User: Fold this.
Amino acid sequence: MAAFIKEKAHIDDMSACEMPTKPPDDLTATITVLRRNAFGDTPVAQIDHICLPLANFEGADLRHIAFDFSNLAGANFTGSKIGKDTFSRSTLTAAMFKGANLTGAEIVETDLHFIFFTSANLTKAEFINGSLFGAKFSEADLTSTCFAATDLMASSFALDPPQGPARNIDKARFFADKHISTEWPDGFNPPAIIDHVITPNEILHYC
Assistant:
């Protein structure tokens, strides 16, 4: 299935990947099968340079899939299971992760503008050198979540009725992040902004 998705959705020039339509029927059918199957301890399947905006991965077990250099803008990952290496250097603008499990995920250099993490489990997840501009974290579990060199401007961790604020934010780690105009839960004191370029060694030490 992973090979079929890579073959049908592969694109060399990611700037040519456009948003207007959902994936074609054959790809949609394959993604539906993927959503219904768990892959156990199978090796991680690399799916790089694919154009799949608006794809529906709701409820899928993606812990053994790695999307690198891919465009999944507007995709639906509601209730899905995300692995350590599922996303890297990709575009996930306005994607939906409501109730998804991202425990231990390492999301590196990924565009997460206007993403929805409502009620998601972000325990021990790491967001490194990416952008979460305008992201929503209402009722997300931030236990030991690490934000390193990440753009959090205009994002919201605060109360967003009917959802409550992000949970366990006091246990999250923020390092060298931008958080101008970020909305925080009442009583939470955001960390100071560190305005310098951090090295990979610093990120590894912090996260």
Notes: The longest helix spans residues 25-35. The two ends are 33 Å apart (CA to CA).
